[in-house]
Amino acid sequence: MNSKSLWRAARTRTRRTVARGADSAGFTLIEVVLALAIFALLGTILYGAFALSHSAVDKSQASAARNQKQRSVADLLGSYIRSAYPYRNSPQEQEVFFEGASDSLAFVSAYSHGMGGRGMAKIFIGFDGNGSAEAALLLEEVTPVRLNTDEGPIGESHRVILEDRVEGMRIAYLDPDAEAETWEERWDGKERRMLPRAVRLSYRDPDGKEVRWIFPIMMHVLRP
User: Fold this and answer.
1) 92 vs 80: which has the higher pLDDT
2) Of 61, 107, 138, 144, which residue is 20 to 30 A from 43 by alpha carbon distance?
3) Is residue 212 part of a domain?
4) How many structural domains are present in the chain?
């Protein structure tokens, strides 16, 4: 075999090798479809995980904000109730101003938020539902203390809604004279001539979670 024949044979083998390499370097239709399906599946999983984590963060932030608000409400109510004072119109009277019902409470406190924490104020705590199942927790502070309208103008009043859309509101009063722990649904200072030992307030928040606070009255706690 001469040199020309050898050269032609080598060139033919080279072309075949290059052709086979070009054919093997591409992707088949099945491979492309499988790659796209895997990519779509991974994208769906990642998006679901991101949406789930984002929803969990939102719920956690909302729960933290709600808990912080309830702690602030408890601190404010506790400041008033713990400082409840056995107010009498005159030193000769034995009747104490404290009107406690199962859904409202009126008394005189030695704590006044409007006066910077000092001074007495007439306090009203109640629920305004207008006959519906859901109600709003209300707080009203009136200064100066005037129990009789004949004493002059009512004074300065501050009214605030502490929480909306609450249900199952109940207020109870701990009897200081009972040997066992006894909670009363009603406490009239004119009849009892004394303050209860503690006040218990409970309700269900908009999420259906039960909220319960017990506020001791310091006049009894500090009593020898």
Assistant:
1) 80
2) 61
3) yes
4) 1
Q: Which residue's entry shows tokens 């239709």?
A: 29
Amino acid at 155: G
pTM for the predicted model, two decimal places: 0.69
- Is 58 contained in some domain? no
Asked if residue 59 belongs to a domain, the reply is no
For residue 53, give the H/E element and its range. Answer: helix 29-82
Structural domain range at position 151? 69-221
CA angle 92, 93, 98 (to 5 degrees): 145
Q: What is the pLDDT of residues 177-217, one digit of tens each?
A: 888 899 999 999 999 999 999 999 999 888 888 999 999 99
Q: Is residue 54 a part of any domain in this protein?
A: no
CA-CA distances (angstroms) from residue 193 to 27, 83, 88, 95, 151? 94, 17, 10, 5, 23
